[in-house]
Design goal:
26 strands, 18 helices, alpha/beta
Length: 615
Amino acid sequence: MCGIVAYLGDKEAQPLLLEGLRRLEYRGYDSSGIAVLNGKGLEITKKVGRIDQLERALSSHPLHGSLGISHTRWATHGKATDVNAHPHTDASGKLAIVHNGVIENYGILKKKLQGKGLQFRTETDTEVLAYLIGLHFDTLDTETENRLEHAVMEALREVTGTYGLVAVHQDQPDTIVGARRGSPLVLGIGQHEHFLASDVSAIVAHTQTVAHLRDFDVVTIDRQGYRLKSLTQNKAGLEISQVDYETSEVELGDFPHYMLKEIFEQTVSVQNAIRGRLNLEECTAQLGGLNLTPQELREIDRIVITGCGTALHAGMVGEYIIESLAHVPVEVDWASEFRLRNSPLDRRTLVLAISQSGETEDTLGALREARRRGHRVLGVCNNVASTLARETDGGVYMYAGPEISVAATKSFTSQVVIFILLGLLLGRMRFLSASQGREMIEALEALPDQITAVLKQSDHIRQIAKKYSDSKSMLFFGRQMQYGIALEGALKMKEITYLHAEGHPTAELKHGVIALVDEKTPSIFLAPKDGAYDKNINNVQQVKARKGPVIAIATEGDEEILHHADDVFYVPDAPEYTAPILSVITLQLFAYHMAVILGRDVDKPRNLAKSVTVP
């Protein structure tokens, strides 16, 4: 949440910072701002609203200089206003900082600073941090070498909470200091220029050589280069890596929205999740990153999957898949609850932590809690250099490519594919025959073409969305592996259309949910031709008996469903473990088209941000 971009080099900073902010706007769009050191002092422009507002202000009063910091905000402390926007300054106005995260003890620090006669201008925790750093800077001897670096480090030793932080001071006009704890910050290394950003997508157009800061790292950039220190006794050291995607992957291309682009990229992202992971000779999956021996995998008695939002829904689909294929008991738990409750776990329990970004605060808290108890923790994420990737014992990367839209799409289907691969791997070690494994491999290899067939129905789905665009509420129903899809379909609908939407197990209809059924509330039934088909038809009939409109997602060739549903989206015939992927893409398109028809800001839905890196 929130986005940071900083630059020091030979070029004008303002255009580079604005470009980076635009690439990070999905992380927060309540307000934005830029601070530039222009050789005479510190100049700051900040505006409430989207980055367009900031750009308009800068077009009439541009900021000139080759060193600057910038920020796009998702509000945590204080309303979205010009004054609460970042950057924030200290009491002297000479120091400016941008900050992601939450300073948990800001109230105590604020009282301490007020006791020294300092008066605050905003409601934010970030301003408190700026004042604290400024106070330490002013108390240091003016001849102190690396004065800003020292001030930042001394201030952060007093701080409880999370931060991705960048600071500048006009008395050190060729220096930027960055620090990280719990909120991502990446150093970009270019030719005679350096960047700091909260996500590599902000800087990939200018450098693909990066280093991800670790917790408690403090990096100082000047005209000679960069140096790293640590707030702890741990030895500081950066791992330099190359960004594994091109600038074009974070561009819209011919698509009107990132969400639609990413929905259509699922043919490739699913292929990437499968590539190199199928062992045709042994009819199984190979997941080398698990860092577990075959014997250790056989000894797993229970799996706990933990995540948040869309990742949790993928885990719920994964629960049914793994239990069905491998006969291993699986439990799914919200990461926010897992990290706080005292859940009994035996020593042969494997914990799977799922996060697209690998930086979700609650998921990281859950994995750390599991490790405290001595359990093996594996990660499923899309970011090779993320905190989750570093702190887990092993895991599986999605290789889905950058996902920019706030509403997750391709990361969900990649996660489900990974659960199928894990189910195949564990199943072949236990109960699945070679012929069953071969059938699964064939089903996985057929997925990209089947996804393409679903995507070709986009225009038809748009027409049905238009028909129901006056709805105020929608109900989504699914059984077994399709239950998690019902939850995810409802989540997508509410995230980007702002309509009330609920997901339920189909059989729960008569246990209270049916009270919501009326002629103005569409019910979306996930009704593929599987073992629960007749039961699903019975539930559809119950809704129709109460004049409720029904939209069904059904298997190609199913003529019977036409007698019961008002509208039907067909998906290719597929086994029950791959069918959810085809169903969810249909629902992604349905939500997308509904949002466009309603005039919503699809990629930047209100009150939401992409990566939830604050508690």
